[in-house]
């Protein structure tokens, strides 16, 4: 999990109708299980007339790589709702996400295979609608330079593959730059070339960026 995983680009909701049953899928980005439980509770409260609120979540620890996964069929036949939803999230390598598919039964039974297709399909369509981003691990580097150098360095950074995150104006100007582990040595050489070896990049820790 130290490499790239995905997250949803935004929270959202999407509805499909299958043989007169309504399936409303809600997805939200969450940091922990408690936040996911709050989303599930909110959806249940907002749709008290639904026959089922089936759920799936994947929440990862970025440092250890451990993934917490949970699913619930909420009264649907075992394995026909929550697990297929979880499989959709896993196939797309998504983390920090909870999905709830609420079903209003329309009178026509779908059968086990039909339920699997309905719940997984509703979630897949919702993910397509909200979009996804890559969560990429970067090192955050601090570069302090004199004021008379800062303007040119800022311009060069904005036209480089490295990501300028912040600028702090003090006695010197400190630029915060995010680079991937793979680009770190190249950035050091790039920085030395543009500052005559005068500037040093100090490591300020890990930062995760969400990229298209």
Provide an overview of this structure.
The chain is of the alpha+beta class and 212 residues long. It contains five helices and ten strands; from the N terminus they run βββαββαβαβαββαβ. It has helices at residues 33-46, 82-91, 111-130, 147-158, 184-195, and strands spanning 5-8, 12-18, 21-29, 52-60, 67-72, 97-104, 132-145, 163-169, 173-179, 201-211. The strands form two sheets. Strands 1, 7, 8, 9 and 10 form a five-stranded antiparallel beta sheet that branches. Strands 2-3-6-4-5 form a five-stranded antiparallel beta sheet, with helices on both faces. α2 crosses α3. The radius of gyration is 23 Å and the shape is elongated.
What would you say about this model in short?
The chain has 212 residues and is an alpha+beta fold. 32% of the residues lie in helices and 39% in strands.
Overall pLDDT: 95
Termini gap: 18 Å
- The fraction of residues in strands falls at 35-45%
Gyration radius, to the nearest Å? 23 Å
How many strands?
10
Q: What is the 3D form? A: elongated
Q: Give the uncertain stretches in residue-range form.
A: none
Number of helices: 5
Biggest beta sheet attributes: 5 strands, antiparallel
Global structural class: alpha+beta
Helix content: 25-40%
Helix and strand element order: EEEHEEHEHEHEEHE
